[in-house]
Design brief:
Oligomer: heterodimer
Keywords (chain A): Oxidoreductase
Largest sheet of chain B: 7 strands, mixed
CATH superfamily of chain A: 2Fe-2S iron-sulphur cluster binding domain, sarcosine oxidase, alpha subunit, N-terminal domain
Number of helices of chain A: 3
Strand content of chain A: 25-35%
Number of strands of chain A: 8
Structural class of chain A: alpha/beta
Radius of gyration of chain B: 24 Å
CATH superfamily of the largest domain in chain B: FAD/NAD(P)-binding domain
Distance between the termini of chain A: 65 Å
Largest interface: A-B, 53 and 55 residues
Pfam families (chain A): Fer2_4
Strand order of the largest sheet of chain A: 2-1-7-5-6
Protein name (chain A): (2Fe-2S)-binding protein
Helix content of chain A: 10-25%
Number of helices of chain B: 14
Shape of chain B: globular
CATH architecture of the largest domain in chain B: 3-Layer(bba) Sandwich
Largest sheet of chain A: 5 strands, mixed
Shape of chain A: globular
Structural class of chain B: alpha/beta
CATH topology of chain A: Ubiquitin-like (UB roll)
Amino acid sequence: MRRRRRTPVERVLARPGPPFEITFDGRPLTALPGQSIAAVLWNAGVLAWRTTRVAGRPRGAFCGIGQCFDCLATVNGRPNQRACLLPAAPGDAVTTQKGDGRADLAD
Amino acid sequence: MPTSPTEAEPEYDLAVIGAGPAGLAGAVTAEELGLSVCLLDSSPQPGGQFYRHPAPALRAARPEALHHDWPAFAALRDRLAAGTVRVRAAHHVWTVERLAGPDGEGRWRLHALAGADGGRPVRIRARALLLATGAAERQLPFPGWTLPGVVSAGGAQAMLKSGLVLPGRRVVVAGSGPLLLAVAATLVEAGAHVPLLVEASGYLDYARHPGVLAAAPGKLLEGAAHAAALLAHRVRPLTRHAITRVHGTSEGSGAEVRVNAVTVSALDRDWRPLPGSERRVACDAVAVGHGLVPHLDLATGLGCAVRTTPDGASALVLDAGQQTSVPGVWSAGETGGVGGARLARIEGELAALAIVSRLRGRPRATAARARRLARARRRLRAFAEAMAAVHAPGPGWSHWLEDTTEVCRCEEVTAGCVRAAVDGLGARDTRSVKLLTRAGMGWCQGRVCGGAVARLTGSPPGPDRRPLATPVTLAALAATPPDRPAPDPTAEPASDARTGPTAPTTDQPSADTGPTRSDTHRGDLP
């Protein structure tokens, strides 16, 4: 019997273009063209990239389709980006968003 | 070709909102019968949630490996490519207003936001409107469900189908409804291990609807196919059980934060957990959902009448030709009650036949086609109602909540706060609970918690009402063109029904700020 293909990329016979790099809190992660920021993070085993406004609890993607807003991240300095909708681009710098991501306005 | 009064606001015979199975079938059928059609969808690609697939840049040669019933989508996609339907992908429609057309006939004006950042306002006019906005997942909270690694069942499937990623290697699938079988099957197909599929209802309850099952053998085969795929991977569904606690680490950052186990409890017939039945199951992710509910933001904004389904959700009231209670507005698919992709395709086609009839007269040789579709619809609708009854959330579910369990994820409002508002302060509806606790007031506007808050409050079932169907920035509103009558030399300036014969037709600030809307929709968010 044919051996099962073990990863989603192998299952759909994906042949994406060359992978590229983005960073999460300074750490390099490998991205495939066509993946969202959230997909790149999941692929690297990262499930949390935000802390909540009230209790400071960690959160990441929940609904995966842009409805729940749990996956908000700061991308290239811009807070409150829905990571599950935003396509990853080479060199993107994703940082853990603290609260509303607007601490700069509180000064 | 749009029969366009202006370049800036093209007009079509038919605007279809939603490019899932229902919207695709409706759009291609109407176009093939001679209508000019515009198909709008918030995603960059057609397919909806059911046929969500990888972005072109991932160059997947076999996207169907993670899908069921892909040939039906491929056929619709080919018909779409062969025709003249104007596809507007990545367009978020945030409201629809009714205008008086130049010929006295009504016109629908759709307001959408386009572009990668959703910042470009777009307006489209249409003589007829087909709402194919699908469904959203129903979520019931449980202790630990906000821990990273607990994701919605549909979300796990969406991230897998579009981004080719998994939330973990050992994924417990839990909640209620047939979607769980499909999600578990897709996860194991993609290489994940599913140690447990937890269903709060009992599949044997379908046996109480024997006539319905016999009339929809395809649905049974669908379920059997999922069950066979799961058996092949030794996934054993555990019915009449629920996750009552999630274990894991929420300290630290990055890869340390995640789920490492769940506690599963047996439920009685009302979904109340039975003490002493707990067992612990190791996992590194959880995919959870309690069925689907019709997505009606745009429909309720237009005033379409709703009914309550057997699982307590609101669905649109539709006539034999799929028209809503608002003349000129049709709907197909999950909006009329959750029934699956095949029913959605059938209803989309039926709606298109009815719309063509209304705008052009009954098209030739379609009577037999309509009768055949209507028979299939009747069988599948009956199945959908039975399915809703089997998986209706039991009233005992709230017993698995702890006072510290967050109900509203955005505003971090706990079950204890909601109970205090209901029991201590006398709140009897979601609006009062919202005002007292902020539940439903956050980023998602109650899309995730609204149903759970309503159930905890004991308020009667009713549709969500959101004047804006998608978040709209002030910048996007400011960039919306002023709402003046299109320059039309044949029309009397005073004939614009929005402003009335005595009102000035230009420079009226109140008319420039957005669509007119009945006061009954104000402040009615859940």
